[in-house]
Write a structure and sequence with these properties.
The protein has 3 helices and 8 strands; from the N terminus they run H-E-E-E-E-E-H-E-E-E-H. The strands form 2 sheets. A 6-stranded antiparallel sheet has the order 1-4-5-8-7-6. Strand 6 and strand 7 form a beta hairpin. The protein has one domain. By secondary structure, the protein is an alpha+beta fold. The longest helix has 27 residues.
C-alpha cells in the first residue's frame, strides 16, 4: 500500500510541476505592452543612423522581462513593403514564434510571406538590448509584425565564443 501511495504522490507532483512549467512558459512571464507613442514602430534609415517613426494603427504587443527576445508586436500601416526602400533591410530575418494566445502574430505565415516576397523585413532598432535588434516586417497589404532577434554580437555573447573588437562593450548589469 505504501508503494502505491508513493507512486500516486510522485505522479501528482510531476503533473503539478509540468502544468506549472507550461503555464510559466506560455502565459506567466508575458505582459501586454500598451501603445504609447510614435516610437512603438520605428525603422532605421538606410545609413543606419536615424530611427524614423512609422505611422501605424491597431498596435498590439507583448513582452517579458525574462528574456530580451520575447517581444512580439502586430500593427497595420498605410505603407507597404515596396514603398520602404529608404530603410535598412534586415539580413536573413527569421521570425520567432509567439504564444498561441497572441493570435495576430503567426511566425510561420510571416516566414512564408518573407520567402515569397509578399513581405520585407527591416531593422527597427539596433541593440535595443545588448546583442539584440528589433526587426520589423511589413507585408504588401500593410500588415506589420515586430520581433527581437540576436545580432552577430548577441549570438557570440550568448554561445560563449569570443565577442571580438567589432562588438560594443557589454553593459554592466
Amino acid at each position: 500500500m505504501t508503494g502505491k501511495l508513493l507512486a500516486i504522490l510522485l505522479l501528482v507532483s510531476a503533473g503539478i510541476a509540468g502544468a506549472a512549467m507550461y503555464y510559466l512558459q506560455v502565459y506567466g512571464f508575458y505582459y501586454s505592452v500598451e501603445p504609447g507613442s510614435d516610437q512603438d514602430v520605428v525603422l532605421l534609415s538606410a545609413d543606419g543612423e536615424t530611427s524614423i517613426p512609422l505611422e501605424h494603427t491597431a498596435f498590439q504587443a507583448i513582452d517579458a522581462d525574462s528574456s530580451p527576445i520575447r517581444y512580439r508586436a502586430c500593427f497595420e500601416t498605410e505603407k507597404n513593403a515596396s514603398t520602404l526602400s529608404a530603410f535598412l533591410p534586415a539580413e536573413s530575418p527569421e521570425p520567432l514564434t509567439a504564444p498561441s494566445w497572441f493570435e495576430c502574430y503567426d511566425a510561420v505565415a510571416i516566414a512564408d510571406a518573407l520567402k515569397s516576397g509578399q513581405a520585407r523585413a527591416f531593422v527597427g532598432v539596433k541593440n535595443i538590448h545588448y546583442g539584440v535588434d528589433r526587426i520589423v516586417a511589413i507585408t504588401e497589404d500593410g500588415k506589420g509584425f515586430v520581433w527581437h532577434a540576436l545580432n552577430n554580437c548577441g549570438e557570440k555573447a550568448y554561445d560563449g565564443t569570443v565577442v571580438g573588437e567589432e562588438c560594443p562593450p557589454r553593459p554592466e548589469s
